[in-house]
Specification:
Number of strands: 27
Number of helices: 29
CATH topology of the domain at 9-161 and 508-525 and 569-751: Rossmann fold
Helix content: 40-55%
CATH class of the domain at 9-161 and 508-525 and 569-751: Alpha Beta
Distance between the termini: 36 Å
Radius of gyration: 32 Å
Mean pLDDT: 90
Strand content: 5-15%
CATH superfamily of the domain at 9-161 and 508-525 and 569-751: Vaccinia Virus protein VP39
């Protein structure tokens, strides 16, 4: 008999609201976050990846009936696991050994005492492998993209090799008593990085002169501001004119500054003004989306003209202002000949070149003649970056000699598996090279000057390389953003917070061809054409290759990142949109069919899907990309057992802003579908949905999920039913599509939620029906009487219950604002689930969780708290259908905070009031 694998927690329930709240909070954390080690695109939050891996590996209590025989015991154990996850996902607990030890023990308990090996075959920025390592698992990462491979090596492979070692830089080891984790490695990277900075400044510092202020005082420069220029199309006045987005330098109150341009002797002259009287509206700048005009005579300049000048190599640049560090303030200076001449240097002979992709959606500079990677930098920037890149190799030799002097044996290189002097020197050089590579994001000719914060903004604000008319050039030796040691310091803060322990394997591999035998799979694959990873990666890769060609020669063997096999639907690569789509679908199916043949059968795989707003139709359910993903997984032989919406915005914030409340990504849990899975009919499929969805919804609702996420989470158990069959036949004999299955799942969800009404008291059943039909508005009292009778109550009873009024021939429900006063449920004559829910939702919105927690003990003497929570879900669902944002926020807010409220209510329940028993809130969510 075939052993049925145990159902895992992720296939049943997650504390989703807490996970999403921590994922949202994580976005604001920069210092020490692993994402600051090196830029990569579309990283998933650490909190989400950690929670998903844990829940993917830990048994759901329902799969261990010998330990948890009753539903109540299963709920209690599930709540305990939820509480562990809620601690685990907090940023401040990332390296809390006590919590991590508890998590590892739970994983061992569910996996025969072992900690399984986990692989992400699309490792990207390394979030999933890093969190696998943090949980004590053997972390495997692979990717076709060499930038991804290098990042993953730096995250999970290099740090454990050199943990707890002292630094080798002369004199550094004596600066403290002990060196733990990767403190020694980070110290050496800092010291040799400072040497690189000093040596580079010695060699080329004359290219970056200070600016002279009043009285002859010299100030260090923060940024040189440049404008691209073209010759005016007016043949009678063919002067060189600037292309400028805005003349403003600072709009900080009391520190305003702007540039005034005038024409003197056929040349544009730039003068900095320090007042608030700068240009506004169309006068602010010379070019926009529709074109521009020439300074002086106002001659129109079309974008087509600018493009043609660019393609002919006739776009120039002029210095328009200099920003200096005045200590406590920015100082703005007009350009000088000395400053402009300092930047006039020849392009270095050996620059990391290569053609930019002909990708018109994401790369705009080729339209203007900037067609190679080197074209995206000024000559002075190229000199600085090539100097620093060369110094990486020189620093590596210094590290090696100092390591030998410190007593390390020479050993093998890092890429050959070494762990001694040669490998250590390679490791330090890798992080130094990352410092140079990171610097290119803010040391290029496409960074703009931000006039409100008065700072240089880096290039990659989004996943594209736009064209920029005026740009800021930073000082590579300074202490502000744009300095090499600033870039290095930022990544080393991330290094110091890495787990730095455990086995790790990082490989460059094609996901469709690699081996998956025995591995647990959690992955965030590229999806369609959302991001052109390899195209964007070349921006950094060409510099890393220059620094690391001898150290990581196997990884950086190609001139540019591999493109042909990359699983992204790029029409420009595949001849058409249709060709790109076919390439992607075929490749996606091949990858997941390959995974199915080898992955660990005891554990479901997890797959992240990046949801885009345009994926959703007006009903919030339809998406070509979403359907294609589900189709691909099902066609590759997978049964989808769960779908979890992951968001990096709080649910109420999305609702309040009117934004489509779909999550930013969805995590799917999948199991291999047996080869002999039967077919079924539409009727049998619907019957199975109606049989299985109610219990699945009950578990979801009893867990920590926000009402706004219920519909997307409920897709999981619904699609699980659909995908367990080899096919579902329609009445005409055709196969049911995923799209039609999703429509049926949503319709069944509506029915199941509606059926909850029968479990409520009569007053609540009446109120739900009235709310669904009339909301908080007035209606004829005769209609109210009929509806009350059909609900087995009366208008008089409803009025005594304090939720309804009828007078003068009109009737209405009391609104939340009318039920937000003082209330003692224990002393009330007639209490309904409706009254309790609306009063609690109102109290939550007005006074917060503490007030709700105070009310719960008394309410529990009169009505079921489970029923209150279920009604909160139902009322959110009804408000959503009516597009009533205010009510949706009200009820979502109550239910989203339910776990926290119950936790707080425990302390109020400990001291009984007169005539009131002590309540055991453990019945609600376990211990």
């Amino acid at each position: 008999m075939t052993n049925v694998p145990k159902k895992k927690l992720i296939e049943v329930s997650l504390p989703l609201e807490t996970i999403n709240a921590e994922a949202s909070r994580e976005k604001s954390i920069r210092h020490g976050h692993p994402s600051t080690l090196h830029l990569y695109w579309a990283r998933r939050p650490l909190a989400a990846a950690r929670a998903v891996l844990f829940a993917q590996l830990v048994d759901d209590p329902s799969s261990r009936p010998e330990e948890f025989p009753t539903v109540e015991e299963q709920d209690s154990e599930r709540a305990r696991l939820h509480r562990l996850i809620e601690k685990l996902v907090v940023w401040e607990n990332s390296n809390d050994e006590k919590i991590l030890r508890q998590a590892r023990e739970e994983i061992r308990r569910s996996n025969n005492g072992e900690l399984p090996a986990v692989l992400d075959p699309f490792a990207g920025g390394g979030t999933i492998p890093l969190e696998a390592q943090r949980l004590g698992l053997e972390a495997h990462a692979s990717d076709l993209n060499p930038l991804s491979v290098l990042i993953n090596k730096a995250l999970i492979e290099i740090p454990p090799k050199f943990a707890d070692q002292p630094p080798v830089f002369p004199g550094a080891v004596e600066t403290r008593n002990g060196w733990y984790r990767v403190e020694g490695l980070a110290e050496d990277a800092t010291r040799y990085g400072e040497w690189m900075r000093d040596e580079a400044e010695r060699r080329i510092g004359h290219l970056y002169p200070k600016v002279e202020g009043p009285g002859g005082k010299k100030y260090p420069v923060i940024a040189w501001l440049w404008a691209r220029t073209v010759k005016s199309p007016n043949p009678a006045n063919p002067i060189e004119v600037p292309l400028i987005r805005s003349w403003w330098l600072s709009k900080k109150k009391g520190k305003e500054a702007w540039i005034e341009a005038s024409v003197v002797d056929g040349r544009v002259v730039y003068q900095v003004r320090r007042d608030a009287d700068g240009p506004v509206g169309e006068a602010d700048g010379t070019i926009g989306r529709a074109g521009g005009y020439a300074v002086g005579d106002g001659t129109p300049i079309s974008l087509d003209y600018v493009r043609s000048e660019g393609r002919a190599g006739r776009i120039g640049k002029r210095l328009i202002a200099v920003v200096a560090d005045g200590g406590r303030e920015r100082l703005y200076f007009s350009p000088t000949t000395e400053q402009e001449d300092a930047a006039r240097v020849e392009r270095p002979e050996l620059v990391p070149d290569g053609e930019l992709p002909r990708n018109p959606r994401d790369f705009k500079t080729p339209n203007y003649g900037m067609t190679t990677w080197a074209d995206l930098f000024t000559n002075r920037q190229l000199v600085a970056l090539t100097t620093l890149s060369d110094l990486v190799g020189e620093a590596r030799e210094r590290v090696y000699l100092d390591a030998i002097a410190a007593g390390m044996p020479p050993g093998e290189s890092l890429q050959d598996g070494g762990q001694n002097a040669a490998a250590y020197a390679d490791a330090v050089a890798t992080f130094l090279a990352f410092g140079v590579s990171r610097l290119t994001d803010i040391c290029n000719a496409l960074c703009h000057w931000e006039i409100t914060k008065t700072q240089v903004r880096h290039l990659f604000g989004r996943q594209a390389i736009p064209m920029l008319w005026d740009f800021a050039e930073t000082m590579p030796f300074g202490s502000a953003a744009g300095g090499f040691t600033v870039s290095l310091s930022s990544l080393l803060k991330a290094l110091l917070r890495l787990p730095s322990s455990g086995a790790a394997v990082v490989e460059q591999a094609d996901a469709a061809a690699r081996d998956y035998t025995g591995l647990v799979i959690s992955t965030d694959p590229p999806y369609y054409d959302n991001i052109g990873y390899s195209d964007l990666s070349d921006f950094f890769y060409v510099w890393l290759r220059q620094s690391l060609s001898k150290i990581h020669s196997k990884t950086v063997a190609t001139m540019l990142t591999p493109k042909a096999e990359e699983l992204v639907a790029n029409p420009y690569r595949h001849g058409s949109k249709k060709g790109a789509e076919k390439f992607f679908i075929d490749g996606f199916n091949a990858v997941f069919a390959n995974i199915r043949r080898g992955a660990n059968p005891a554990v479901p795989i997890t797959v992240y899907y990046a949801y885009k707003q345009q994926d959703a139709s007006s009903d919030g359910t339809s998406s070509t990309g979403w359907h294609t993903l589900l189709d691909g997984l099902i066609d590759a032989g997978w049964e989808i057992t769960a779908t979890w919406p992951m968001r990096t915005e709080t649910s109420n914030r999305l609702l309040a802003s009117g934004t489509n409340a779909l999550a930013s990504s969805i995590v799917l849990a999948c199991r291999p579908r047996p080869e002999d899975s039967p077919a079924t009919t539409r009727r049998a499929f619907v019957a199975a949905l109606k049989s299985e969805l109610p219990e699945a919804l009950r578990t979801l609702i009893q867990g920590s999920i926000a009402p706004v996420d219920l519909a997307q989470a409920a897709i999981g158990p619904g699609v699980s039913v659909f995908s367990r069959y080899s096919r579902v036949r329609e009445a005409d004999g055709s196969d049911m599509s995923v799209k039609d299955a999703l429509l049926l799942i949503n319709a069944t969800l509506d029915e199941v939620i509606g059926e909850q009404e029968s479990d409520f008291d009569a007053d609540t059943r009446f109120a739900v029906k009235w709310y669904r039909q009339y909301g908080w508005g007035q209606e004829n009292s005769g209609i109210a009487d009929q509806l009350a009778r059909s609900s087995d109550t009366s208008i008089g009873a409803l009025e005594r219950g304090g939720i309804f009024e009828a007078k003068g021939g009109k009737a209405r429900l009391f609104s939340p604002s009318q039920l937000d006063g003082e209330w003692d449920a224990a002393a009330d004559e007639r209490v309904s689930v409706w009254e309790a829910t609306v009063r609690l939702a109102s109290a939550m919105a007005k006074d917060g969780a503490d007030r709700v927690a105070e009310l719960l003990p008394a309410i529990q003497t009169r009505v079921s708290l489970d029923a209150v929570k279920e009604l909160g879900f139902l009322l959110f669902h009804e408000a959503e259908k009516k597009r009533d944002t205010q009510d949706a926020i009200l009820f979502n807010g109550l239910v989203s905070a339910w776990g926290d409220v119950n936790e707080q209510a425990r302390r109020f329940a400990l001291v009984p009031r007169a005539g009131q028993q002590v309540f055991d809130f453990d019945d609600e969510d376990g211990d």
